[in-house]
Amino acid sequence: MTTETAPAGRITLPGGEMLAWSDLPQERLADGGPLAALAARLVPPGARVLVAGPHDPALLDRLAHAEVTCLLRSHPDAVALAHRAARLVVGGPAGLPEDETYDVVIAAAGLDPVESVEGTQLGWDGVLARLVTVLRPGGALLLRLDNPLGLHRLVDTTPWYARRDDAAWAIGGVLDRARPANRDQLRERLSVAGLMPATCWAAYPDVSTPTALLDADHLDRDAGSGLFDAVLHGACAGGFTSATVLQDPARLAVDALHAGRAADLAPGWLTLAHRPADPEDPSTPTADRDLPVALVQTGRPGIGVLEVLHGPSGWRWGLIPTSDPRTPAGAPFASGKAAYRDADALSGPVPSGRLLRTVLLDAAVRRDLGTVRALLRGYAGWLTDQADADGRIAGAAALAGTDNVVFDGERYAVLDPSWRVTAALPADVVLARALWRFATGLLTGGYAHPWPSTLDVAGLTVVLGGLAGHDLDRATVSEAVEAEAAIAAALHGLDAAGTADLATELHAVAPTDPPIGGHSYQQLREAWLRQREELTRLAALTAWTEELLTSRERALRRAETTISLLSGSISYRVGRLAITPARLAKRGARAAKRRAIAVLAPKQEEQQ
């Protein structure tokens, strides 16, 4: 059965279709993001692929090298995707042909949206079993599972069990035994279904549109990885900017990483499982050895998706370029800008070590000034070594702030060398910019620290510069803030007016402000407490000033009273009577002297 608005023969309606419902995601990433890049890597050329459930249309575009069949429950969605797939089956999984098998089955939207409410309900295990039956021996299944205890639920202001919107059609909690609730239960269900679980990726910050996919096993083992630290912080800081949350998701994700629980707190997981070609040989295919440790969405023209591969010599950067042939890889954002991203620089090894920002924050919270001083002096010395004969730093080192530098206990290294400046910057400005960014995060983030609470951001930057062994002044810090505004404007595509507004905002950042970006109730409360403390200090200062003025006014009144009393006494009057004639005589003598001089002066001139 076909429709008038879709190509004839592409849409099959076996029954159970939902005619007035749409599942297609509203939020979409460029080129489909890391999920589409992973799917394209898993699917070999010419393979027969079943995409079960609603997915980003960009994912289907990345599978143009394969024969794709879509299993949907929404008829409007099938019409919208008809030009992107070879065939579309609209209805529940029971409508799949019995005699067809596929090389790869992708259910990256989960199993719940595969079932249609208009057809037979199979349940989670039933849908999985049906997908396994259409998977050929030796084939691969990519399956998504939401985490009922994920970070997204821990920071959400609305409890998951109170949702009543259309997206909450099926909500499962930890008490729902019909679905697995963690990775161990998922592996058990897959094994029972006859599959071999292989690689599992933790999806951040949202399992429906993840901007970062991180190997769960590596997350558990490499808890101190600066790469994972930076990726998690960036993904969670950028993924919750449009919503107010209970607490800072980036800080929570980083803490979970260093506690070895980042994979357990992921909003969801993408698991790759295989159907054995030979039941007596349950071995993982060798192709899985080339799967990425991390996939990160950049959202920048010409960059595509970054990937990290695990090789014999350690982790190495990789690049999955954009699918748009009109955008050349490695092109700067715009000519004449202060900074750009060079994709060609992402080809070497990933440096090991802990992220400098995290180590510095830890030392500051513990009031360990010795560690802070040692780290900052080492970092400043490393920056000095990157400067040329004129004392200027160019390339990636000029943007190597504390959030893009790793420290392995002996050496400092740039984590992501693709961020570059177009013109070299003075070494003091580079250091001041890095310290200003760290000071801003420290003060506005509400972290405890060993320095006076009356310091502003620029003042703390100067103090940090002193700890680093450099005599920075406020003029240098101001120049660094201007450089930060120009760099941020280049990276975000702002015009001249936007750059000026951004510079004004950055100069006005105060310790009592909440952090720049997304806000959490926890951070807003800390900002309110800092503002209340500052108001209390100012009120005390005002009270002290008023008390001082009052005491001075009282002393002045006492002096006036004393003068009044003295001026009305008998001795004062007698003295005044005695002094008055003398004053008059003195005044008359001065007048007579002036007259005599006036008379004698002309005569002396005539005699001369």
UniProtKB/TrEMBL annotation:
GO terms for biological process: methylation. It comes from the Bacteria. The keyword Methyltransferase applies. One of its GO terms (molecular function) is methyltransferase activity. Gene3D superfamilies: Vaccinia Virus protein VP39. InterPro entries: SAM-dependent_MTases_sf (IPR029063). Keywords: Methyltransferase, Transferase. This is Class I SAM-dependent methyltransferase.
